[in-house]
Amino acid sequence: MSNGKKRINPQMNNNEQPSGPRRWGSILLYTIVFALLGVYFFGNDDRRGASKELSYTKLTAYIEADAVDKITVYDDLSLKATVKPSKYTLVFSSQGDGEQARGQLQVQVPSVEEFAKYIDTVNASRKANGLAVIDVKYDKSHDYWYLLLVNILPFALIIFFFVMMSRGIGGAAGGIFGVGKAKAQLFDRDKKDKVTFADVAGLYGAKQEVQEIVAFLKNPEKYTEIGAKIPKGALLVGPPGTGKTLLAKAVAGEADVPFFSMSGSDFVEMFVGVGASRVRDLFAQAKAKAPAIIFIDEIDAIGRARGKNVMTGGNDERESTLNQLLTEMDGFGTNSGVIILAATNRADVLDAALLRAGRFDRQIHVELPDLQERKEIFQVHLRPLKLDDTVDIDFLSKQTPGFSGADIANVCNEAALIAARGERKKIGKQDFMDAVDRIVGGLERKNKIMTDDEKRSIAYHEAGHATISWMLRWANPLVKVTIVPRGMALGAAWYLPEERQLTNEDHILDELCSLLGGRAAEQLFLKQTSTGALNDLERATKQAYAMVAYYGMSDKLKDISFYDSTGRYDYGFTKPYSEDTATLIDEETKRIIADQMARAKKILTDYEEGHHQLAQLLIDREVITSEDVERILGPRPWKSRGDELLEVNAALAEAQKPKKRAPRKKKTTKLNDNEKTTA
Questions:
Q1: Which of 1, 123, 672, 675 has a CA 20 to 30 Å removed from the CA of 182?
Q2: How is residue 526 annotated by DSSP?
Q3: Backbone φ, ψ for residue 496 (5° rounding)
Q4: H or E, element range at 294
Q5: 636: helix, strand or coil
Q6: pTM above 0.90, yes or no
Q7: What is the pLDDT of residues 244-300, one digit of tens each?
Q8: Which residues are tagged catalytic?
Q9: Pick from 467, 518, 509, 511: nearest CA to 489
Q10: What is the rounded CA–CA span in Å between residue 618 and residue 622?
């Protein structure tokens, strides 16, 4: 809904001149600098007129010629003598300015005592002849920079500090008197590079809910006429990189209303009460421009549950800020037109009062994209890239399960960098595969030296994983195996996880068997074990423990779960079961792992020849792919879920295409025995 007034962009143009406290502070600073320079260079009478350095012998000649009337001798053996105006031409060989022409001579004397004896003799002679004696003064040496630092600089620093505080302490708008002002960024509707819903791929459910909020702000009468109340707040919850902030930017681009954006950390300041003051100021600005949207990114910085930390008292600054936020959110009118959006990836730590109805009425879950959503995200990020004919978006979508939108953007950028380093004009399929490998496994370390025994052990270990995962239906199918060190790992295998909505016991057991395949191959064929299976054993132990203690998938502990989804109970010190039950959990976990280890050894024994071929191929080539495994072990008899989803989506897209009308047949009729054709 627009009020017809042009909104002012808060960003200052380059041609605009600073005004207010900043301008006067700059003027005051420059005034102090020029005043100090003036005092230093022009405040001393000794620095007026011409100056000349000469030898001690020449000075004595000028003294005897009655050209000097004042002499100052310093303890560092330096001497300054003032030339009489009448003798100015004699000393400087130029015309002076009458009585004002008083030059200065600078001399290094050999000794203060010797010069004192000499000048006493000269003055005695002058006195005897009826002449005026020469005025001689003995003083300490002057270090003007020292005097400047000691006497003037402290006052200058105090004034400068006051000017900087008036310009804005800590970046707070309005200077020290405006430290409690909210530093919200106001998005302008006339911004050219704004984000819209068209730029957000996937996130169908989340976009639908925020689109409803935008529609209410544009046309609130449509909802209020029938008595509907728009939610006061919506909380975007999801893992990092899934597009929560991007979705908020799209709301800012779509809504024709003021959009105030702040981070949760912007409310926190070193001064007590500043956070609460900024909350009040932010909501006051939004109410003044209603209808409006307030977006608080990373709200967990100020919205953590109260009372969890026993070390903080009742005057905790973060809790004061949260209390003020709760008050402001619950103090709106029913249809005041101010809606709050917030984003976090840690909704479990938020205070319960923040999530109740009337504050954040809706929790919009922004999950990791599925196969079809990853395809749309790839289409968005591949738009500006130059691709060759080998790039297949469907293939890339299947190769990146569990990737967020930020991860996919990183893959596209990394592929472009790899192609540019290779002096290629276009990006190919292999560049994207190398980019995925680089992001998931780390950089290849081909310069790392391995012995033949280590290389053989790693090859047999990885071949064991590859063989078992290929022969088990519910294990993740293999994509690529390498024994080239990457990151901290000496070998790595890439699998294509099945994107299931529900996992049953057979799925977990097949994955357990595949995880134990590397250690089983070492024990079966190398007759030894190595530390390379550490990560496999850790993951297998956790999965087996979860089957027994969490999922109730044990023969002796059926239908019992000790999992705490609320996080309110601390199981680190007390367990929700007895010691006998703990012993039973340990025994069942050991039994499950032992059964799957025996199963893995049986599979490797049945396919021993294929395993050895894979291991030897790894030793020779260092990298093998699923095509090599299929050539040696044969094709998998099961179709992956990813292929099934792509086929279903393709069938749905084909069914939604408009059907072409068949051409109408021509018919003939006889009129007056003449055959005529009509359409």
A1: 1
A2: I
A3: -110, 95
A4: strand 292-297
A5: coil
A6: no
A7: 888 888 877 777 777 888 877 777 665 556 777 788 888 888 888 777 888 888 888
A8: 462
A9: 518
A10: 5
